[in-house]
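In this section we walk through a basic example: taking a raw amino acid sequence and producing a predicted 3D structure, encoded as discrete structure tokens. The instruction is simple. Fold the sequence below.
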Amino acid sequence: MILSAKRILELNAKYGLVENLSEREQNNPEGIGLDLRVGEVYTIEGDGYLGETERKTPESRKVADIKDGDKQVAINPGEFVLAKTIEKINLPSEKIIVDPSLAPAFLMADVHPRSTLQRAGIYFRGTKTDPGYSGELTVAMANLGPSRFKIELGARFANIVFHVVVGDLQRSYSGQWQGGRVSADKKETQN
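The resulting token sequence is shown next.
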């Protein structure tokens, strides 16, 4: 079951699901999701590795941060970046009352691109966010189009949609990306 933006805002008042929402999203969200804004942009450098028990991400290098006064970033054809949201997501690790007519349930979220990105040749890849995760979200963007694309920091670029999870979990998210970390500093064991 997908929750409406209005219902998410009601739950947000009680559970603090999304911090740092823009005024527009707090007062006049559209449809079923809430728009998220780009706050930081990173490039990646070096090699990565994903093994059965260990992983190593390429190093990330911050190229823009709204908190530092940066205004926009250009993504040239063929370039790949990671973008981090201004908003912080806090999905409870326990079941919550999503609706008085339903049994308590876990929440999870999916992140989708705003359609302007795809119309400009930008490939966007978000991921699911599990119950128990807390932090900003990092998504991938690659310019697959023929033209240079500029994105202003603070622009609404993603949309988060919340779902009710049916059933129990073996365990809530406790992974190494907790807190909005963008990359790993060294090879590390996966939990």
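Looking at the output, two observations stand out. Residues 36 and 72 are 16 Å apart (CA to CA). The longest strand covers residues 34-45. In the next section we compare this with other chains.
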